[in-house]
Amino acid sequence: MTTTGLFDSFPLLTTNRLCLRQMNTEDAEDLYLFYSDAKVTQYLDWYGPASVQDSKDLIHSWNQYFQDKRLFPWGICMKTDPTLIGTVMFMPIRDTFEKKPLLPLNVGFELNRHYWNKGIMSEALEAVLAFSREHIGAHRIQAEVFPENKASLKVLEKLGFKQEGLMHQYLMHEVTRTFLDVIMLAFINNT
Fold this sequence. Notes:
By secondary structure, this protein is α+β, with helices and mostly antiparallel strands. About 30% of the residues lie in helices and about 30% in strands. It has helices at about 30-35, 40, 50-65, 120-135, 150-160, and strands at about 15, 20, 70-80, 80-90, 105-110, 140-145, 160-170, 180-190. It has an 8-stranded mixed sheet, with helices on both faces. About 30% of the residues are buried. Pfam families: Acetyltransf_3 (PF13302). It comes from Paenibacillus germinis. This is GNAT family N-acetyltransferase.
């Protein structure tokens, strides 16, 4: 399987209710809004962008990483409303999507709290996993989740991710500089 052409234009993914699209500077205020919610950032290794301008800069850097073939940074919105409500990040652990054999991919995600418990993130992640099967062919996709983040663990396990173990002091919080434990989960594509 080849990634040739995948980076010619940003891949738009749609589901029954959602649109996963490229973010732009007009999304900065929405991005800042949901990252400003302490409930959203409590299980992240940072507190999110500190301002709308920081959000613009972040979106710009994510789009640059896409151009460099290092990241698929999808913004999540409802099909009926272009407001950004979340993100899904899909990236190789090392190197780029062009490196073969493809190294493990990491998935990360956040969602505006007003959309929790509605199946939104499961639907978004199903679309990303289908995209990977069809266009990337990743053998291993992994996620790092804080043990206390029961909702994310539940979503990932529902999609077929298996817990592989607790990684002690695996991440360092960018602001507090404390080391954090995470549960490593992986989805192995055996097809």
